Amino acid sequence: MAIDVVSGSTLFTEALKEWKPDSEHHRHRNKRTKRDGTDLITAGQLRLPIDTTIPAVLANTLHQIPLTVHCTSELNGDDYEYACLCLSTPANRPIVQAEVVFSEPNTPAKDRSWTRFFIALIKASQSNIITISRCPDTSPSNTQPLALTLDVTFSLSNRKAVTFFFTTLLPHWHPLPSFDQPISIDAFYRHLQPPVMAARITKCNPPQLLATLTPFQSQNVEWMLQREGYNILDCGTLERRQPCTDLPFMWERMDNGLCVNRLTRQACLDSDQLIQNFQQRAYHGGILADEMGLGKTVSVIALILLNAAKKSSMFSKLSFPGYKTAHSTLVITPSSIIHQWESEIKIHAPSLSVAMYDGIHSLPKDTDVEQFGDSLADHDIVLTTYDVLRNEVHYARPTSDRSLRHDSRHRTRKSPLMLYVWWRCILDEAQRVESPVSVTSEMACLIPRIYSWGVTGTPMKSSNFSDLYGLYQFTDYLGDIRASHFRQLFTDPKFQAQFWSFTKATMRRNLKIFLQDQIHIPPQHRYVIHIPFSAIEQHYYNDMWTSCTSDVDIPWLDSIDWKPPSPTSSPSHFPDTLARLRRWLTSLRESCVHATVSAGKTRQEEVRSLDQAVLEIMTQSTEESIEEIEHQMASNLLQQGGMNEVLKNWTQSLVLYRQGSTKVKEHLQSLADKTNQLSSEQLHSDTSSSDNNDAKNNRLGKLLLSQHGWQLLLHRFYFYTAGIYLMMEDHDNEEKLYDMAADLRRQILSRPAKG
């Protein structure tokens, strides 16, 4: 039990001498004992040592007297905080008192943490968030100094109390050890590297596997078997491992028997139930994340051969209401490598039967899905793709039980992937499910299965560990841990040690740099060929460089030697400048590949030569710049007209508004001609060419968006011109211009701008 010693306690001996036990005090004591109950959890204790030397008789009296705890606190602005803990007789006579004062400049640094903690305890007790009470076992000792012990308790049913326990009590009384290792991606990969051993585990190389596993591959297979709950014996048979008796990830047991999860702020008294629930997923699979080219596929095939559902009695011991059982391993891969999987299986394990599932849309409408599913489940391995998962999610989500008027007509077929509990589900290139909110990830998590495996050479695509959440969500090791909680594991130093150990246990990654003696990579050669720019490319690149230097202010960076300057009035100027420079350098590098890349455009139309692409981009950029300038000039005419209105120069304002209206209408007519021409081309184009249609839709959308902006400007010209006619008392033209503005407004609102 965590104990804090409250030094400097004061004993009021006169009140202690005056106390006499009577029936009223005994009734109070019995009432208090009954109130304590059993629903309170003791988080820790406070011990109040009595420095004053008193006779033995008074010491016995101190431990017999029924004391009640009173807490008071006071905040005096920013000057100080005061807290007092007082133990009194039933007659409210103080017996023992402990008090602290916290002042930022005056409290010693070594005492600040504990002083703040004591003040927080007193405030929480005053708010009935926690209870501070006399410890029942306080009999005097001849060997220990005289002291009173107080229990700090809280109720699990009080949400505020549970929050206070996790934010204040637990960090103070049971702090987590600090994590002093680097948390970089490179350090993480090296941390996952298992010990490199030259010994080949021959028992992990099944006879049906025609390939010979390397030592590290055989060690991978042994680890994967262990993650599925088996040890492999020398004879090649599997032996079930002892049931896991550990608490789930991030749970820990306190001295008082309470089990807590600091990450999700959950607490539980029934550790047996926690362990029992965790046993169902303790040996549930994992993540094999060897570097690319280290033969992960062969290791997976060896696992399938060694731990086959037909050899196991697990299905007979478990119940799956509403589902059939499939003794197959479901392998989900990208479409581009599904046939590579089929080829690898035929080469290395021809005894395994393989079926390919192309999706429910590939089945005739009159196909019996359950019967088709039975034929799939008869195979050892079923191959399908992430595209199938993405298209099949609507046939996998739970359907509503609400009856429909035409229920038989609209009944949705169920995906055959959802009719069975699969023996094993393997995601190859598992980074495809890194986003937990994607449709692919949702479908993968919905598939019923016994074992879950993620196989990937690139478990993280970004510069942080968030990508791992989707993988662990699929393997079902996280329990109630949400994405926000998972992020704390690698950003909060107090959780990083547990994150390190958890990933080490559930994820395995071999790096080529440590396996030089086991793999034989042929010598590689690098040839650099310099290709000069064409004249058009060079002109485009020079324009980009000029824009870069004017935007980034290279001379200023040279003047400070490209190092952060001393603190100035704008400390963000240096990092902002570097950020802009980084964006420009990316664009310049991309332009060396192809101009359309640096322009940030996805060119979906037919392939063009580089010179054609550069010319098109430069022309389009120039046209956009000209249009922007013309729009600004028309807006300036509007502003000039408004300034003349302020001066009551109505005639000059009218001239400027008419001039601007004419220019805007001419530009709108030009845009309308371009829009009609593009729409006509789109109407008569080859509809089978979806790429061309998409590109033309993009151009048409930009034209309509530009047209919308010019229409808004013309509406302002009409409206302001009508106002001038009002001031000039020309009511016929006033009404005419207001009607024109109203017609244009209806036209704008009838066709929303497209972006």
Automatic annotation (TrEMBL):
Residues 277-477 form the Helicase ATP-binding domain. The keyword Flavoprotein does not apply. One of its GO terms (molecular function) is ATP binding. It comes from Hesseltinella vesiculosa. GO terms for biological process: DNA damage response; protein polyubiquitination. This is Helicase ATP-binding domain-containing protein. Pfam families: SNF2-rel_dom (PF00176). It comes from the Eukaryota. The keyword Transferase does not apply. GO terms for cellular component: nucleus. Keywords: ATP-binding, Nucleotide-binding.
